[in-house]
Amino acid sequence: xxxxxxxxxxxxAAHRLHSPQLSDVExxxxxxxxxxxxxxxxxxxxEVTVSGPVDPATGMxxxxxxLDAFVHREVIEVFDHKNLNEEIPAFRxxxxxxxxxxxxxxxxxxxxxxxxxxxxxxxxxxxxSFEYAGEDLGS
Amino acid sequence: xxYLTRKIxxxxxxxxxxxxxxxxxNRRVFGKCANLNSHGHNYVLEVTVGGTPDPVTGMVLDLxxxxxxxxREIMERMDHRHLNREVPELKxxxxxxxxxxxxxxxxxxxxxxxxxxxxxxLYETPDLFxxxxxxxx
Lengths: 139, 137
Description:
The structure holds two protein chains of two kinds. Chain A is of the alpha+beta class. Chain A has one domain (4-132): Tetrahydropterin Synthase, Chain A (2-Layer Sandwich). Chain A has five helices and five strands. By secondary structure, chain B is of the alpha+beta class. Chain B has four helices and five strands; from the N terminus they run βαβαβααββ. Chain B has helices at 23-30, 63-78, 83-86, 97-108; strands at 2-14, 39-51, 81-82, 116-125, 128-133. In chain B, a hairpin with a 2-residue loop joins strand 4 and strand 5 (128-133). The longest helix of chain B is centred in the middle third of the chain and has 16 residues, at 63-78. Chain B is elongated and about 60 Å long. In chain B, 28% of the residues are buried. Classes of the chains: A alpha+beta, B alpha+beta. Chains A and B meet through strand 1 of A and helix 4 and strand 5 of B. Strand 1 (2-15) of chain A pairs antiparallel with strand 5 of chain B.
């Protein structure tokens, strides 16, 4: 039997989808209204899934208070009520699509010491969501 | 393979306590969940069965049958019950979402004879859930 524990968080942030590798016309064509130079924002929902053996003393894969503190420090405090393009160094080069946001958040949460990070899932709106489980590097 | 999911809701009370530890240690590890007067949740359980639809009925398994299994094995045991005091399968275990999900898996797995129990997802709150898969996942 394999157990996965998932915790859900939320944060609100602004962004603009615009690639410096594309012309203004192409940016407009590819990203549509998401290319608005003034930016726009979302209420993101973040699901963090971890796995590992259940400690017989606590009945837990990971202490939730510890997981919450880690996710708050590494992600929520960094991203909540921020402008992703301006304030997150990774998005100076990469376009802050939810795909890239998944990768960035996964790499920030990967070092969680008490359990294995299985997956992050982000809802950009209630109508679209993205999941990332890391790259399979083989054995 | 087709996966079919049925959802049920039950309400139950519990507390977290390890008798091998002092009250201070219990309080430090489990926080407000260590309150021995108990608290409760509305649990939501999603049960997913995988299988090939029967060519005659077009069903992986009869939903009525699954409903009855869930009623008998889960609702009667756990709905409006105290998990620490009234559910023998959890005796000696801290009734965390992890242990409750594993217990539910062990109760349901042998009862699902048509199709194969693929996953259970147990929500303790909308912001916390545990998925349980079999080894052959």
